[in-house]
């Protein structure tokens, strides 16, 4: 009997994506087999593609990227009751162990034995969705209403990040909110804040086009274009203080109760601390250099909280509802669409970062 195969985009190393036939696995009892219809590409995929690694995770065996996906259920494992063939789902790419202390107390994003789709963190890697067929635990395949398109479905995962970040921030509707970084995650965080009734959002970025986009989408009331580097001879510390002052003056001198930092850049983290109101909260969403110089003194004297976030737990349902109800419009964020066969081309575009790129999605 000949083995069944399907097409996959395999990353063999830096800038080396090949379309190949791979063996098709049948779903395990707790899994569903999914035909991915749309996969969003983000910074993580970009790192794997451009360098053949993401931080300390190196591509040793061919890796199928893709962890922001929506697709159609084409087969179900013997134990699966909640899903059936033909169902449309958004895929939550986390594969927690479901047995450790975090998993049994609802903090499964912090699972000690976490595996993640489209990541080389495990060896052999856990393959992602840039392929024609893909098996995933039914528990982490969330039903998608017919009113949500496939490409919108691919934005559920990054929106789940934003929902978790805003939840951790303790944001209130009357807060003044500062979002540092107007990329996809920053825009989605602003959108979630808006859905909570926030009327005062300032967004900051180095790219004026992104800021204009945020404003045009109604996600920012005020914007501030931050220069890439300090003035000549200006100390970093002074630069951060000066930027914070300018950002606050843009907001009619009002300090920010909630700061959502989506760049991971040390300067921006410090600007966030300086711009925070007493008892304000700085949420660290962006993943930057693991070692940074942070003005803890400035935070301490005003009881500013630094809050970390790691992916999400139990936020996919909320993210899907936000899209389905129209409270968060994700369609305008999808600026580039490619077919699975153009996976390498799509990844090249994400690496090249054209000015109009917000989110690139691969459909099949
Ligand atoms: Zn991602
Ligand atoms: Zn666990």
Automatic annotation (TrEMBL):
Domain Enoyl reductase (ER): start-end pairs: 13-351
Record-level GO BP terms: sorbitol catabolic process
SMART domains for the chain: PKS_ER
InterPro entries xrefs: ADH-like_C, ADH-like_N, ADH_Zn_CS, ER, GroES-like_sf, NAD(P)-bd_dom_sf, SDH-like
Domain of life of the organism encoding this protein: Eukaryota
GO molecular-function terms, A-Z: L-iditol 2-dehydrogenase (NAD+) activity; zinc ion binding
Cofactor names: Zn(2+)
Pathway named in the protein's UniProt entry: Carbohydrate degradation
Keyword annotations of the record: Metal-binding, NAD, Oxidoreductase, Zinc
PANTHER family: ALCOHOL DEHYDROGENASE, PUTATIVE (AFU_ORTHOLOGUE AFUA_1G14390)-RELATED, SORBITOL DEHYDROGENASE
Protein family according to the UniProt entry: Belongs to the zinc-containing alcohol dehydrogenase family.
Protein name: Enoyl reductase (ER) domain-containing protein
Source organism of this protein record: Recurvomyces mirabilis
Lineage: Eukaryota, Fungi, Dikarya, Ascomycota, Pezizomycotina
């Amino acid at each position: 009997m000949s083995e069944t195969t399907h097409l996959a985009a395999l990353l063999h190393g830096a800038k080396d994506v090949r379309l190949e036939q791979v063996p098709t696995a049948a779903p395990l009892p707790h899994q569903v087999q999914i035909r991915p219809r749309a996969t969003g590409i983000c910074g993580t995929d970009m790192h794997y593609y451009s360098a053949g690694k993401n931080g300390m995770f190196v591509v040793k065996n061919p890796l199928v990227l893709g962890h922001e996906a929506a697709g159609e259920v084409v087969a179900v494992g013997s134990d699966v009751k909640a899903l059936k063939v033909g169902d449309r789902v958004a895929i939550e790419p986390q594969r927690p162990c479901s047995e450790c202390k975090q998993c049994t107390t609802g903090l499964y994003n912090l699972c000690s034995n976490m595996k993640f789709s489209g990541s080389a963190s495990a060896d052999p890697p856990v393959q992602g969705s840039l392929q024609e067929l893909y098996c995933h635990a039914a528990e982490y395949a969330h039903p998608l209403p017919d009113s949500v398109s496939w490409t919108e479905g691919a934005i559920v995962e990054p929106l789940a990040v934003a929902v978790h970040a805003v939840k951790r921030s303790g944001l209130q509707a009357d807060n003044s909110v500062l979002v540092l970084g107007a990329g996809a995650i920053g825009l989605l965080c602003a959108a979630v804040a808006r859905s909570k009734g926030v009327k005062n959002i300032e967004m900051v970025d180095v790219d004026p086009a992104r800021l204009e986009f945020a404003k045009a989408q109604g996600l920012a009331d005020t914007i501030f274009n931050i220069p890439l580097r300090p003035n000549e001879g200006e100390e970093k510390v002074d630069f951060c203080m000066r930027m914070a002052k300018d950002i606050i003056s843009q907001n009619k001198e009002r300090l920010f109760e909630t700061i959502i930092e989506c760049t991971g850049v040390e300067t921006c983290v410090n600007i966030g601390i300086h711009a925070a109101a007493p008892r304000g909260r700085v949420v660290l969403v962006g993943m930057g250099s693991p070692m940074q110089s942070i003005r803890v003194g400035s935070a301490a004297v005003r009881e500013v909280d630094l809050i970390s976030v790691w992916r999400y737990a139990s936020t996919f349902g909320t993210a899907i509802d936000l899209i389905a109800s129209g409270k968060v419009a994700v369609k305008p964020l999808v600026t580039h669409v490619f077919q699975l066969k153009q996976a390498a081309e799509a990844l090249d575009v994400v690496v090249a970062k054209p000015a109009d790129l917000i989110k690139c999605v691969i459909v099949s």
